[in-house]
Structures are given as C-alpha cells and as structure tokens.
Specification:
The protein contains 1 helix and 3 strands; from the N terminus they run βαββ. With about 60 residues, it is an alpha+beta fold. The protein has a 3-stranded antiparallel sheet, covered by helices on one side.
C-alpha cells in the first residue's frame, strides 16, 4: 500500500533566488532521507487562484 502526502506552500524568498533554490533542494533532501519514502516531487503551483507557489508530493510505503 502506498500513502501519499501533498504539501502546498509559499516562500518568503524571492522567486528565482538562490535562497529559494536552496530551500527547495534542502526540503527535497530532508524528505528523501526519511525511511520508507519512495518518491519526492517538488513542483510549482500553476493555479492563478492560489497564493501557494510550491508543492512537495511525497509517496511512501
């Protein structure tokens, strides 16, 4: 059985900044280090109706 989690969020870092890139990379690294996590996807929110700019999608067994 696979369990998935999606977390939508926005950052205080400027879009396209080194700080934004570092946060996303560090978040992905932290999530993939969790036991049983099979997949982590970092994606940009595309809905103009949402103020949340990013998603972490995590799948684990």
């Amino acid at each position: 059985m696979t369990i998935t989690h999606t977390v939508a969020f926005r950052l205080v870092h400027e879009a396209g900044s080194d700080a934004e890139a570092a946060f996303l990379a560090n978040g992905r690294a932290a999530l993939t280090s969790i036991e049983h996590v099979r997949d982590v996807v970092v994606s940009r929110q595309v809905s103009p109706e949402s103020q949340l700019a990013w998603h972490f999608f995590v799948a684990h067994a």
